[in-house]
Specification:
mainly beta, seven-stranded antiparallel beta sheet, Jelly Rolls, 210 residues, 5% helix
Length: 210
């Protein structure tokens, strides 16, 4: 009930949201030069609320680092809108304070598609182009939200993207740096509530390919 009340307040409009500043330690990096007000990121228990204007961005806390064998899981609510921009999580963030910053993003879209992209030095490359998946809950254009739990498992030389417990795709990650900062990737004109972000470190042995 508490989460439903928070989501209803966010849906009714920004004027109903509590006036809060960005959570301590968190940063925003936009794809193109933009004023600080172009991306709203506020603490809204449980979780955070992020709204973007005409510029895509990553939102992260530099203290959030992952390496080795791990899984990143996020529970995300997508609000009504007209765009079909990607939203989700990014991994392997490096040099995020400079122009050569790089990361890999695992994304969902409003129409129920999933994709994976790599951004390096201001250039974005599609590693897995958007493909509709029955695992992804689309937003039907109504007043509610699309609720998805996405998970990225990094294990050995692969990275596996899943949504709502169903595997979507895997990419070969032997030469893809996924160790580093992780956080959220949000496309332009997107309104999200993220109720959960977990890092799971995997300790048990896994089969080695011969």
């Amino acid at each position: 009930m508490r989460l439903s009340s928070v989501l209803l307040a966010a849906l009714l409009g920004p004027s109903l949201l509590p006036a809060q500043s960005r959570p301590p330690g968190w940063r925003v990096r936009t794809d193109a030069p933009a004023p600080d007000s172009a991306v709203s990121h506020v603490r809204m228990p449980p979780g955070w609320h992020i709204t973007t204007g005409p510029v895509a961005s990553i939102v992260y806390d530099p203290a959030n680092q992952a390496s080795g064998r791990f899984a990143i899981e996020a529970e995300i609510f997508l609000f009504p809108g007209t765009n079909n921009e990607g939203y989700g999580v990014f991994l392997g963030g490096r040099s995020l304070d400079g122009s050569s910053g790089s990361w890999t993003a695992f994304l969902l879209t409003r129409d129920g598609s999933a994709s994976i992209e790599r951004r390096e030095g201001g250039v974005t490359t599609a590693l897995f182009p958007p493909v509709k998946s029955p695992a992804v809950k689309p937003h039907d254009g109504g007043e509610g939200t699309a609720h998805n739990i996405m998970r990225v498992l990094v294990q050995g030389d692969s990275a596996i993207l899943s949504a709502n417990g169903q595997r979507i795709t895997a990419i070969h990650a032997r030469d893809l740096p996924l160790d580093g900062t992780f956080g959220f990737r949000v496309g332009t004109g997107t309104n999200l509530h993220i109720s959960n972000l977990d890092l799971v470190t995997r300790l048990a042995p896994f089969p080695v390919r011969r």
